[in-house]
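Quick one:
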Amino acid sequence: MNRGRLLRGSMARPAQVEFPGQKRQRMRMRGTKQANLDTQKRLRKNLDTLLEEGESLLPVMTWTGKLKWGRTDPVTKTLRDLRKVLDKRHDRKWLAKRMMAKRGDDVGKALAGSLMAAHDEDISLVGNYSHQSFGKASFVRRGDGKVAYQAGIQNHHMPTLRMLPWEDHAKRGYFFFSWKGGFVCTGPEPDIPEGWLNDVLKRSRFDFNNERNIWVTEGLEIDAVANDEMSGGGYLVMNFIDGSKVAIGFDKLETAKGKTSFIHDLALSMLPPNLSTVMTPDAIWFPEGASRDGARDALDRVLDAWMGLTLNEGSISKRAKLAVLHNLNEGFIVGEKWFESADDAVQELNGSASEKELALMLMKEASGSGIRISKGGETNERGGDALEIAATSCNDVLSGLWEEHGLAGLVGIGIEEDEAEDLWIAQCNKKRAFGKFLKDIESQRAKADITKKFPYRKGKVPGPVGMIHDLTITGLVEGMGKAEKMALSKKSGIDDEAASWAWLIAAGKSGGQEWQFSSNARDKGSAWSPAAIEVWNAGKSLVDGEDIDYKSCLESLRTSCGQIEDLP
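Output:
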């Protein structure tokens, strides 16, 4: 038979294998090429092995069941046909006819062509077979058999490619498992062969510890995995139909890098490559003190996306944790931790003591609201009634809860309602960083506490005595700079001017300021200064917490000034 005609002969479209979550893949032969020496040696070895040990390369049929009406299953029929072809492996004339036959088993036709190629001395001209999932390989095209089938038969050393001749049988509901140590058909039932899982896991990018039928990555406890209990930082577990368990820690999933996913590689060790027939996945993680009971549907969606290859493996841990967190129905969630009480939850946030105090009040007010606070203070509704804080700072919490709960929070930390309302409105209208906002409040509250020690508020005492009293409070509470500025400001009359000068003398701030006062005012103020000094010293004593009769000092000052108006 003319070899050139065979090479140019009609090439059937390559067999196609569907993978879960992927569109139907295109498999193609990219024509032929001149093989390099290494390729020729490899193909020569493969073809020689096929010629000498062909029977050992066939899948083992382990299913012993029967079809209805005593019919023989199609896999067994194909295996019988392949053994007939192998019986004729040295009959080149017969092989030439079989590889071009219009009838008969397609796998047998591909095997006949491959055996014919094994007899050729020159195999330098080869075809290229490529499949996105199952890989690529060189092969020698002989006969009219399917490209994928011939590529699979001639590359029997590759656990993935050697399954391709059995694609049609897989479509009819028959299961095949291929690994370094075996090639098995389990019939219409996906019974996991002994040794398959162990071999596949050994060749994966993860390192597993194994006891009994449980495989775990470092950091996971085998007993915990056996009982689906929390271990490490959480894990992905695959529950196989034979009772085997494979657990991969979330930390390993997040850091592992590879061109393909673990599940992709695992699926390609069986045909059809559908792991859902032999395994059910689960994600084991929940915050301390909580559970994942309400997250089953959300977790299933995450796992289905992973099984369907639409979710990157490195994202499983984050998505699984969010699925659990977003479905907690009570308490407080901060990051990946759950707390029954706001008092404990607020300690996970960054912020000053005053920020935490106010944030705590707002969190208590928002308890059971079923909202999520994101970074920056953005709020959104969530499933479940728990308050979820996906931020790290008290400022974000305060920003998110301020408009609805800020007023109650201010009252809760001890601010009078009227003052609290003013502060709340001001912060709503023009939000400042809550750290500064609270520092200002603290400063105001501290000043108010000092002011309360005086028997009279500012503006309540009339005349020169009232002015000296107001300057004293201002200097001791709000600062000497502000008080001095008030004393040096333009006055409406000589008594006011004299009172200011008397206070400057009392406070020790009169030096160099003479030019700003009239001589009459200085004279009068100087006469009042001894009594003003007593008031100033009494004021300092009050601030220091001493028990002193400040009113009597004011009364002495009133007498010294000749003020007619009585003290309030």
